[in-house]
Amino acid sequence: MQIQLKCLSHTPLRGLNDPGADIVQEVDAVLAQARAEVEAFDPELIVVFAPDHYNGLFYDLMPQFVIATAADSVGDYQTQVGPLSVASDLALEMTRFVLNSDVDVALSHRLQVDHGCTQTLEELTGSLTRYPVIPIIINSVAPPFGPYRRVRKFGEAVGRFLATLNKRVLVLGTGGLSHEPPVPLIANAPDEIANFLIAGRNPTPEARAARQARTIAAGKIYGTSDSPQTPLNAEWDLAFIDTLVQGQLDSIDDFNIEEISRVAGRSTHEIRTWVAAFSALAALGPYEAHKDYYRPINEWIAGYGLVSAQPR
Ligand SMILES: O=C(O)/C=C/c1cccc(O)c1O
Ligand SMILES: [Fe+2]
User: Is 115 among the catalytic positions?
Assistant: First the structure.
């Protein structure tokens, strides 16, 4: 089998609250290059490790890991609505393999996915259906989270499964790096917000629009003294990227969840998708990785990065 990896940030504010035109063009060029590389690789399967932001998964039953055999995009922010072309049989086989590797994983035969999964698919492939895909959700937004060492074990099990396939596989991780958008916490939440976080599927168009307006408003002041959210932390982001590029994945086992939230923002935990993706690649042997791009972009509430890797 052949495998390539790309991990990149997502942000629903791209196109809704943009930085200066020079930065927009710079990112457009980075994404165009990544898309061209995906096109040249011509994957037969995409495995996308993604977070959910209370669009598909809620506290009525909040799993740490989910593999989907079927998935529909809710179309939040500016993402496309509709079904993904999920490789259902392979997703089920993967689930069996992971369970037999002594790692618990939930299975969904009808998962709703949001921008955390679909933005990256659209940016790197042009659509939700261009290639067969297996969506894998890693809880990165709804505390409590399992330890980082667990994410690594999960990613390794997925990687060992991919090694059994005779296919060109593109592994994606989407989210991060440092950032903290105004996603509510259930701890001490008023009833209305708690009810949304527990069972808020399929919100009304008005509720969706209000959520989007709140995020845009937060983007307008993010990184200033008016913003109550933890700011971006470029130093933390670059050290994390370096850890991945140097292949020091075992050091991630010791990551302290509370400390990361404090110094880099609560949604920084979307890097769990990167950890799983790199662990899947590392399960196939030594790799070489390259930082394609990094820039902290307040308007997008994103320590925005792209890293690519392949077997050495
Ligand atoms: O879930 C939302 O409504 C917003 C999510 C968000 C905002 C800004 C940057 C991101 O990476 C997000 O996922
Ligand atoms: Fe996100």
Answer: yes
